[in-house]
Amino acid sequence: MSSFVSVARQGDVAVITIDNPPVNALSFHVREPLMQALVSLRDDPSVAAIVIACAGRTFVAGADITEFGKPMQQPELRAIVAVLEAIAKPTVAAIHGTALGGGLELALGCHFRVADAGAKVGLPEVKLGLLPGGGGTVRLPRLVGPSKALAMIVSGTPVGAREAQAAGLVDAVVEGDLTANAVAFAAGKASAGAPAIPVRDRDARLREIDLAAFDAEAAELAKKARGLEAPLACAEAVRNAITLPFDEALATERALFVTLVAGDQSRAQRHLFFAEREAAKVPGKDLQKRKIARVGIIGAGTMGGGIAMAFVNGGFPVTLLETSQEALQRGLATIDKNYAVSVSRGSLSEEARQARLALFSGTTDYADLAGCDLIVEAVFEEMSVKKEVFGKLDRVAKPGAILATNTSYLDINEIAASISRPQDVLGMHFFSPANVMKLLEIVRAEKTAPDALASVVDLARRIAKVPVIVGVCHGFVGNRMLSARGAEQEALLLEGATPAQVDKAFTDFGWPMGPFQMGDLAGLDIGWRNRKARGQTAVIADALCEQGRFGQKTGKGYYLYENGSRTPRPDLEVEALIRGKAAELGIAPRQIEAEEIIERTLYPMINEGARILEEGIAARASDIDTVWVNGYGFPIGKGGPMFFAGLAGAGKIVQRLDHWHERTGRPAFKVAPLLRRFAETGSWEAGVAT
User: CB 68: neighbour CB atoms within 10 A?
Assistant: First the structure.
């Protein structure tokens, strides 16, 4: 029929095979021949049953999202599913790999679903700021019940074949030849002669639901949405499946989808989807990557231990080095405790915990790192200490081993220049906790070999990180932009805002927490130490640190944390300290509105991002967005700071920066030339240095 859709016969069972690599997306060039095949087989009396299967590594893994927001070429998925579920002979989806989004909706149009034991199924559209638009919110509740459907659709998290079978979504889970098993299943249903009931007509699970209990579940999900529209729309669509006739619920699902796909939040989330994939691209894709089989980690503290866990979780054996047996055992004990917590929460089995612990080996001797293919140092953030470590690695590491530093700020060119193999040196800036946070800033030094860079980018994906390649400057991308924000945070406090007021402006914007609460969580002493190393000061933050107020770790920071609580409480002593420092500086307090807080914190970040692009520290504006969403909690519904500049209006941002620069004279408000060009052209690429 086409190079993308073919039909074969096995007896009186017809097998439709979709072959659209790499993930069999439901593009127009798949949908058109698929519809033709279904109509032809529907009308062919010699065909007793139909199986829909896919070539390659997966079943249909979703719609073609590059088509979103464009005029839809017919036939669309909904029309295909409507034809499919009206076929009077048994239809079976043969699922391997993943059936996601439109792929699962296609399978829901079949009477039955047979899955390979390793398959996963789900409706992840919410992660793109959308809801399933091909009937998923109306059909899935009919198979698994509204409560299970709500959880699957609002989370967007796929479930395995066995769980899907237990829930009623999959009819059979098989080992061996999937297509052969699916054909046998279809033939059996055809020979039985019983009428095949379409999913749309299966209402029994809907009648079981306690609507009040469902509404309570939906309300809890709404609390966690943090201003995102898609989870609420998903919950509304599932509720409609319970309360409305099928066709009416289907129509409302479509109306909600159309609204979401045209909205800023979905545009932002789709932008991030593509941004993550662009960020991982390395020039020279044919580069031969270095083999990385064993990883060495220097430092078993909070960062080193977390980094070690990230590699072990990805299946890599790790040699963990510390300066003393005591420090090593303390680090290993913390790792053991962290895995034990995962077991207690049910997110890790005891068998998996033991298997992971077996991948760790500890040492105090640098010579034991000689067999490692990658060595990451996570020691004290001081140049002399870093150079000393790299000097030792230069003597013991095998030729071709990649030597990485986890520094957050320091000049990696200077570190690389201190040893005989600068081509093997790069930065791997993990974010704390390193075993949880997705972002990995991979810092390309002047002499970093292209194959070393490509190898680490590939490795990052293997340990479930989101890699972004950045250049060398103080603080790289994320922390450099954070510094642009930090000075204004202090100024806002001195001028009359409270920490709680600033933090509320941030959470209202969509951040998970504000900067002062975040500072308390991370530890105020880290920034204090960095400022002292650079000869810088921060009036209020320094005063707090001088009093031993380092945040949650000491029970006091910008807030109080009583009796080991992690819940921040405003502290009158801190507010008195702020007013005292303001008086010393002759600053009279005034009323500060939330809009001003956003202008003076977010806009300088965007401005600094423009400078980063001008200098070629980041290759793309979308790379900066990827850093901030995955590493710093920037609201995903706003797409990252550089994307948000377009949403908010770059002209307005330039105008307000000019206003604040005229009023304060501070460099953070001096508009970068590229930001002005962006306001004029709508493109970040205009005039970017390479």
Answer: 17
Is 123's pLDDT higher than 90? Answer: yes
Report the percent of the chain where pLDDT is more than 90: 87
pLDDT digits (tens, 9 = 90+) for 214-229: 999 998 888 888 889 9
Give 1's pLDDT tier (boundaries 50, 70, 90).
low
Is the pLDDT confidence value at 93 over 50? yes
Q: Which of 426, 433, 529, 439 is nearest to 477 (CA)?
A: 439
CA distances from 292 to 361, 449, 652 (A): 17, 15, 48
Model pLDDT for residues 160-179, shown as the tens digit of each residue: 999 999 999 999 999 999 99
State whether residue 620 is helix, strand or coil.
coil
Q: Tell me what pLDDT residue 688 has.
A: 44
What is d(CA 212, CA 196) in angstroms, rounded to the nearest whole number?
33
Same fold, 497-584 and 594-681: yes
Domain 594-681 bears CATH identifier 3.20.20.30: no
Higher pLDDT, 65 or 356: 356
Asked whether the predicted pLDDT for residue 117 surpasses 60, the reply is yes
| Residues pairing with 425 in the sheet | 403
Residue in 498, 470, 677, 682 with CA at minimum distance from that of residue 574: 498
CA–CA distance from 256 to each of 104, 261, 262, 561, 637 (Å)? 19, 9, 10, 43, 17
Cα(688)–Cα(615) distance, integer angstroms: 8
Q: In which residue are the tokens 């004029």 written?
A: 680
Whether the predicted model's global pTM rises above the 0.85 cut? yes
Nearest to 580 by CA among 527, 545, 538, 543: 543
Q: Which fold has domain 295-470?
A: Rossmann fold (3.40.50)
Task: Name the architecture of domain 497-584.
Answer: Orthogonal Bundle (1.10)
Instruction: Please tell me whether the peptide bond between 75 and the residue prior to it is cis, using omega within 30 degrees of 0.
Output: yes
Catalytic residues: 105, 125
Distance CA 198, CA 206 (A): 15
Q: Nearest 10 degrees: CA dihedral of 276, 277, 283, 287?
A: 120
Boundaries of every domain in the chain? 5-262, 295-470, 497-584, 594-681
Q: What is the CATH class of 5-262? A: alpha beta
Task: Give me the mean pLDDT over the 558-576 stretch.
Answer: 93
